Predict the 3D structure of the following.
Amino acid sequence: MKHSIQKITLAAVCALALSVPASAETGYSDVPEGAWYADAAVYCRDRGLMSGTAENRFSPDQPMTRAMLAAVLYRLDGSPAQTGASPFPDVETGSWCGPAVTWASRKGILNGYASGLFGPNDPITREQLAAAFWRFAGSPAAQAPDFADESAVSAYASAAVDWARSIGLMSGRADGRFAPQDGAARAHVAKVLANYAAAPRSASQVSAMDIMCQPCGIAAMDDGSLLVTDGYNKIIWRVTDRRSILYAGADSVEDVYGQPVGGYHDSTRPESLFKDPWAIAPFLGGWAVSDAENGVVRFLRPENDKKAGRTDVTDLGIRFDYPTGLAADSDGNLYVSETLAGRVRKITPKGDMTTLASGLSEPMGLCWADGNLYVAESGGNRILRIDKSRRVNVVAGNGDTGRADGPVSQASFSSPKGVAVDSDGTVYVADTDNSTVRRIRDGEVTTILSRNPRDTAALFPAAPTGLLIQGNTLYVSDTFARKLLALPLR
């Protein structure tokens, strides 16, 4: 009977849509101009996050289901490709929500029930909505005044509800209650999405790495784990599920201050020695690591190689003058910032090397994107782009040391050491000496992450260096605060 009622209701809605003209302002016949959710509905439609339920209809009062919410957040994350079968028997792999539910489950954003089912058609509650967005944002910490019915909020959603209120994502009822078990309609979810886009971003810790360390370079493995270079312990970590596991490098002797000295020794991954591992990038099926103080680029062979586990210096026939930034393109070429020589080198898979650009001032972080190589010119306080013709163009920065946002030609940086480029062309910069992360978009430079000087307990960002974009998340290594941070971008 329930399904029959739903079918009749949907038929009635479709028939009504043919007779009610759409609003000229919103484009929806059931979204009046000036409605509290009107701008949010248009925002979600224009960005492909929520479409209408029928021609010219948004159905603002329709309950939001778990499958619908998974699909919305999946789109917000850029709809990354999913492989393998659906983890839930009640969600078909090839269904409209299959990839979204698989993604949401793997990310821990929406989990299944104890029965093993997902319940795709179950309506979500307000506390579930808050919890899903909180997890999507990286589970950031927050403090907020309690709602009148705070005790009614489930334990799993308590921190999420506090966070949602603190950033203006979700407000309570007029009587001061949050009403955690009430349902959430499509209009409410659209409003939450619009609020999320306008909310201030905060970084959360991916790995506390609560030992003395100095994370710098970051690279992503196929399974979603991260490889992070550590300049203090002279090793490479593998970070997965918020845990740091040794991937390459051995303990070395300590100096008179008890700090690891490191060295230069090619051996198996657990027995190899590094002096100053700076950046890491995919190369020849394995990983290239710039060992700055040793003046070489090390090569970690693929794990399925016949000599699996070996760490070798790339046989280039020369040494580098303090190599730092690394980047790889889609053809398997490797790019190296030779910082003290002021140039960027290109290494082909066959081992041939050419100079891509010279005469630069301490180039460091590199990022390959859309046929161009982006360079954080640390000594020149600029962000550069080297195009296919090897022309060097200034992306942003007037060359002076400073911290000014604004038009790209007037903005200033202070020793930027990292750069990353999103799929839409937005450039992110680790502005190291300014202790900030900056964004370059639409001809403007904006600071998107900085330490609150009034919060004495906030230790990061202090010296952001390495950057990596994965999906909707910008990972930031902070060499001074000893943290690997996750900054949601959407």
Summary: Confidence is low (pLDDT under 50) at residues 1-24. The longest strand covers residues 277-283.
